Amino acid sequence: LQLASTLSRHLLVVMSPSLFENQWTPVTICPLFKQLSDIHSNIICVPLQGIKMDASWKSEEGCMLRQLLSRCSVITWEVNTPAQRRRFWTSLRLCLPPPLSPPSTRQREMTATTTTKAKLSTFAKSNESLEVLV
Questions:
Q1: How confident is the model at residue 22 (pLDDT cuts 50, 70, 90)?
Q2: Half-sphere exposure of 127 (CA within 13 A, CB side)
Q3: End-to-end C-alpha distance for the chain, whole angstroms
Q4: SS3 sequence of the chain
Q5: Could you report the per-residue pLDDT of 32-59, keeping only the tens digit for each?
């Protein structure tokens, strides 16, 4: 995970509902987020279910977890209607940086044309200088 995160620009964490219901309290989530924040600074968190704020969030771990979550982008998974689905995917796209794209075909063609023209121009200049000498 550490190697992959150093190569990525963002770290996407998806939190499932079954983990929320069974064992996801601030005491168990906090160490995970501490570790993730040590690995990467740009974290996007997607809880698949709303995070319930109960009395355990008032503990020391709860306060620390709130701080850790405030440093990352939290996007709630709500996809019941088409509008919610669009809003979720738009929010996720806006949190991510623009994709790195390889040079387009047009850029490569322009580079090849420029290189070819430069070679032809050098060849023409050397022919002219030969003609002047003769």
A1: low
A2: 6
A3: 70
A4: CHHHHHHCCCEEEEECHHHHHHCCCHHHHHHHHHHHHHHCCCEEEEECCCCCCCHHHHCHHHHHHHHHHHCCEECCCCCCCHHHHHHHHHHHHHHCCCCCCCCCHHHHHHHHHHHHHHHHHHHHHHHHHHHHHC
A5: 888 888 888 889 989 887 766 677 677 7
